[in-house]
Specification:
Strand 3 and strand 4 form a beta hairpin. Strands 1-2-4-3 form a 4-stranded antiparallel sheet, with helices on one face. Helices cover 30% and strands 20% of the residues. Helix 1 packs across helix 2.
């Protein structure tokens, strides 16, 4: 069986960043999948499920309500390895194209206070598994260490 694209990336060299993971076609439309890598794979502890779950709820809510990207957002959710998230957008984008959107989204997550959207038994299958404080902290860390001063090596997968 052939390896899928995400398993061909050298995770030993991979650092936190914003990467185009793949581009697919649905009819004439391009779907761009982004790898929003928040932690260094196999070097740092992975994010716990509670903060990943919280970032997922906040990020999806932000993106689906965004005035420019709301109708282009196909999916936002965690990687199984818990080192980051995937974002799928309708359109042909580069990593640099979405950096302002990611800054906006992670500032929203960093600054969010109050009830997490969808964190109720009626709205979510695991509503108690949330950690807003850690989600705020991880968003701040990603902004400070990656997004605010992102360089080309954090926008393109390592060779």
């Amino acid at each position: 069986m052939e390896k899928i694209t995400s398993f061909t990336i050298d995770h030993i060299k991979l650092q936190p960043g914003v990467y185009v993971s793949r581009k697919d076609h649905a009819g004439s439309e391009v779907i761009t999948t982004f790898d929003l890598r928040m932690t260094s794979p196999n070097e740092e502890p992975v994010m716990n499920t509670a903060e990943v779950h919280t970032i997922e709820h906040l990020g999806a809510t932000f993106l689906r309500n965004h005035p420019l990207y709301g109708n282009k957002t196909i999916y936002f959710g965690p990687m199984g390895c818990r080192t980051g998230f995937y974002l799928l957008l309708a359109g042909d984008y580069t990593s640099r194209d979405i950096v302002p959107l990611m800054v906006e989204m992670y500032e929203f997550i960093r600054d969010y206070k109050g009830e997490v959207p969808g964190a109720s038994p009626k709205d979510c299958g695991n509503y108690l598994d949330m950690n807003l404080g850690m989600a705020n902290w991880l968003a701040k860390r990603y902004l400070d260490q990656v997004l605010y001063h992102i360089t080309d090596d954090r926008l393109n997968y390592p060779e």
